[in-house]
Amino acid sequence: MSKMSIYVVILLALGAMGFAAYVRLAPSDPAQWHVDPVAADDPGPGGIRYVPTAEGGPVPVYEVPPEELIVAFDAFAMGQPRVTRLAGSTAEGRITYIARTKWWGFPDYITVEALALGPDRSTLAILSRLRFGGSDLGVNRARIDAWLEAFDPLR
Fold first, then answer.
1. Which residues contact 73 (CB under 8 A, 6 or more apart)?
2. Is residue 125 a contact partner of residue 113, using CB atoms and an 8 Å limit?
3. Residue 138: phi, psi to the nearest 5?
4. pLDDT truncated to tens, each residue of the chain (155 aa)?
5. How far apart are CA 58 and CA 1, in angstroms?
6. CA torsion 91→96→128→56, rounded to 10°?
7. Which domains, from first to last, does the chain contain?
8. Sheet architecture: strand order including 47-50
9. Nearest 5°: phi and psi at 51?
10. What is the pLDDT at residue 67?
11. According to the model, what pLDDT value does residue 21 have?
12. Angle at 153 between CA 150 and CA 155, to 5 degrees
């Protein structure tokens, strides 16, 4: 291998390490990511937005008040691998999480809000989107669908 080839390999390796560090360490601005999932625009191919409609919605209706639902969901989400809380609280009724991919640590931002449907009934509005790139190959949808299938607020 020539000296020039070695330099190119070293530069490429340093570039990859720099990009990996940036992906993991870049600050996340809560003002940009902690938004109302009902009022937010559709995130496009790099995300998913589940909100209730007059006909129902993609998220189940739970037989608990919204205050209990968000507490249960927060405990569930914080128990998932590589998930941290960026902004919001159970008292606010809206929380934004950062879920990172296993190897590169790419962040996805997931905002969840509990919505009242009656005194002891509620549902969730969920907005999940990526930060880097234009498509996540369905990762956000798969994650949220798996979470909703596994989540039980009465546990």
1. 95, 112, 114, 124, 151, 153
2. yes
3. 85, 10
4. 787 788 777 788 777 777 666 666 678 899 999 999 999 998 988 899 999 876 667 889 999 999 999 999 999 999 999 999 999 999 999 999 999 988 778 899 999 999 999 889 999 999 999 887 777 778 899 999 999 999 998 77
5. 56
6. 0
7. 3-150 (3.30.530)
8. 47-50, 121-130, 107-118, 94-100, 83-89
9. -135, 145
10. 96
11. 65
12. 85
Residue with tokens 């569930």: 76
Structure tokens at 151: 């989540």
H or E stretch at 18: helix 3-25
Q: Which residue in the block uniquely carries the two structure tokens 């927060």?
A: 74
